[in-house]
Amino acid sequence: MTANLLLRDVHVVGVTTPSAGGTVDVLVQAGAVTAVDRGLSAPPGTPEVAADGRWLIPGLWDQHVHLGEWVRAAQRVDFSATTTPEDVLRTVATRLADRPGETLIGFGHRSGTWGREVTVAELDAVAGDIPVVLVSGDVHHGWLGSAALRALGLPPRSTVLREDEWFSVYARIHELTGGRVTTPAAYRATLDDAAALGIVGVVDLELADNTHDWPERWALAANGVRIRAASYADALDDVIARGLRTGDPLPGCDGLATVGPLKIISDGSLNTRTAWCCSPYADGDRLDHPTGQPNLAADELADLMRRAAAHGLAVATHAIGDAAVHRAVETYERTGARGSIEHVQLAAADDLARMARIGLRASVQPAHLLDDHAVIDDLWPGLGHRCFSLRTMLDAGVDVVLGSDAPVSPLDPWLSMAAAVRAGTAIEGWHAEQALTPREALAASVDGQPTVGPGSRGDLVLLDADPLRSDLRQVGVAATYVAGAEVFWRT
Asked: What is the DSSP code (8-state) at residue 126?
């Protein structure tokens, strides 16, 4: 689906190359920019938009979204303000008192600084026979009461569920609310909100059957924003059998939804203390695995990468701890697979240089630092300079792209960019040596597109202010276009 468009009187923002001074007109034909100059003539039938001197950038991408979970997050009880297990339990008790008998699914607690393990018994003491599921803010563990465990057909247990054991349960917690699923209308509203932020595309890493789900929901859910739909190991045989390769258009999606990467979760998370590290966590003496641990054996990871590479699939490998990053880089190099490392939260400089050498992308979520910087200092003391090391990555020649990991952080590219430059956020000054410039953060957010010019995509965003000289949280999005078609216009 493509369109023609003529934008009059815009300032082009220099993303990769400087832009000419003053304002120009930008012509989009058949979904691509064909001319940038003053006084362009509009071909017959081409819509003209008076930009009134606004600033023009390539469309923004979020390279790491769990879209269904972001849609559902609005339906869950917010626990992000809790700071201790006792806070969580008080919030549960208050909610159940306000809505007696109602199943509670909460989201957002962060256990990284709690200092102790929590138990099913203490949750049962406030929940009783009401099913309660508390999803951690990093989505890598769930704290369930006994009633929820029974309702999901799980055996009794005393502690939280983590990693693979948890992920298999997480996909089923909607059963506790009568099997309600996320509606196409809710997806549409979420994508409309994304377009209003200048987002023209997302990489959907939802733990679901995405290459089937998107064609089924497209007609009712889509608003013109591009989707790259990932697959997981349990769907790999099906994807291969259907002959799907990364970049292929999904049927019935107007050419805007395509096959994304194979997603592999190779380790856990910092807050759950399951990210696999070379050194023990500061409180590792109370952990079963003081350095965290991998979710896959080395040969399992290699087999998945080889199969993906052999069938034209890029790979997106979740690796947060430095041991996990090292193994992922080594396995990409050994198998010939290509793609990205997702998060790259703690990494050695040698592994970053190796990523650059073999062409691996670093898909990073800078807004995680807003919650994690204190946890990093507590659990990985002395390693902050190697966390979210964006400057080291760029200096090494790594291709860096930004995302949110929504719902872990909000689906908001301006928040991600502000965190990357360490400006206007709670982490201003925290390891500022790793900060990006606004131009670098913008370049990492536009899916590799250059300064708007002939040949670039007709995925464009009009802004009220120059993002290179303004507070990134306050620039204001006036309009968003995908392949020349309007997907958002501020009234």
From this structure: H
Please report the beta strands in 97-136, taking only residues with DSSP state E, as ranges in sequence order. Answer: 104-109, 132-136
Query: The CATH number of 71-177 is which of 3.30.1660.10, 3.10.310.70, 3.40.50.150, 2.40.50.140?
Result: 3.10.310.70
Domain with CATH 3.10.310.70 in the chain: 71-177
Residue intervals of the chain classified under CATH 3.20.20.140 are 61-68+184-449
Render each residue's pLDDT in the chain as its tens digit; 491 residues: 789 999 999 999 999 998 878 999 999 999 999 999 999 999 999 999 999 999 999 999 999 999 999 998 888 899 989 999 999 999 999 999 999 999 999 999 998 888 899 999 999 999 999 999 999 988 899 999 999 999 999 999 999 999 989 988 988 888 888 756 689 999 999 999 999 999 999 999 999 999 999 999 999 999 999 999 999 999 999 999 999 999 999 999 999 999 999 999 999 999 999 999 999 999 998 889 999 999 999 999 999 999 999 999 999 999 999 999 999 999 999 999 999 999 999 999 999 999 999 999 999 999 999 989 999 999 999 999 999 999 999 999 999 999 999 999 999 999 999 999 998 888 988 999 999 999 999 999 999 999 999 999 999 999 999 999 999 999 999 999 999 999 999 98
The model carries a pTM of 0.92
CA distances (Å), origin 95, targets 90, 102, 173, 218: 9, 9, 18, 36
Give me the phi and psi of 309, to 5 degrees please. Answer: -60, -40
Size (the chain), residues: 491
- 411-440 CB burial, b ≥16 within 10 A, e <16: bbbbbbbbbbbbbbbebeebbeebbbebeb
Report the alpha-carbon distance of residue 3 to residue 28 in Å, rounded: 8
Residues of the chain with CATH 2.30.40.10: 1-58+450-491
For 339, the 3-state DSSP assignment is: strand
Q: Does domain 1-58+450-491 have CATH number 2.170.150.70?
A: no
Q: If we measure between CA atoms, which residue out of 57, 118, 66 comes closest to residue 476?
A: 57
CATH superfamily of 61-68+184-449: Metal-dependent hydrolases (3.20.20.140)
